[in-house]
Amino acid sequence: MSDPTRHADCDSPTSLENPGAISWYAQGLRFACTRCGACCTGEPGHVWVDGEEIARLATFLGMSVEEFGRRHLRALASGYSLKERPNGDCEFWDRQRGCTVYAARPDQCRTWPFWPEHVRTAQDWAEVTEVCPGAGRPDGRWYSREWIDAATLLTASRWSGQGAPADNLVARAELPASTHEVCGPDAVVNPKDPTP
Question: pLDDT averaged over consecutive 10-residue blocks of the chain (196 residues)?
């Protein structure tokens, strides 16, 4: 018996992977953030930020870019990532209040759960709905295929280093040396380096 919840093209690639193809989510998808924190807590990872996002977060928190960098960023070979707590939780996540920088959150957070690996197939999306109570909610906001494609393109280009031109990153000189804890004080942050 066929599964009525699966689209006929459930294993078709996303539009991002095959431009011009009809993606399995051609009719769009629904999502409503429940502020459960499932995407903000747990296993360690990276929340990549560029200069514009760093400035937005610093302004939101009422601090200089330098102070924000010193307190909240770590430099990696591929760019800057927000620091995490030792348990892997985002340091901006509060169990009572939710995301404390929600209005200024990075694009990576804004595009959740529409990341390339989550919408590649209907099965991938189904797996996301098992861990994210807001993904696929019938009462959630409807996102068009075009919006989803743009979100996946943004995140895919950011994570591969292709979408963060050097002039869009905060200049190394603007950040205190302590933000280079992972790479060392002489590290050169190369936005085109595909290493995560």
Answer: 30 48 85 90 89 96 96 91 94 92 92 92 95 94 91 75 36 28 28 28
Tokens 């400035």, residue located: 55
Q: Which residues contact 48 (CB under 8 A, 6 or more apart)?
A: 78, 79, 80, 81, 106, 108, 158, 159, 164
Q: Output the six-digit token pair for 165.
A: 């031109």
Question: Whole-angstrom Cα distance, residue 155 to residue 80?
Answer: 14
| Three-class secondary structure of residue 16 per DSSP | coil
Among 37, 44, 18, smallest CA distance to 119 is for 18
Which sequence spans correspond to the domains of the chain? Answer: 35-180
Comparing CA positions, the residue from 37, 41, 34 lying closest to residue 134 is: 34
**CA pair distance 176, 55, nearest whole angstrom:** 15
Residues 41-87 pLDDT 10s: 988 888 989 999 999 999 999 999 999 999 999 998 888 999 999 99
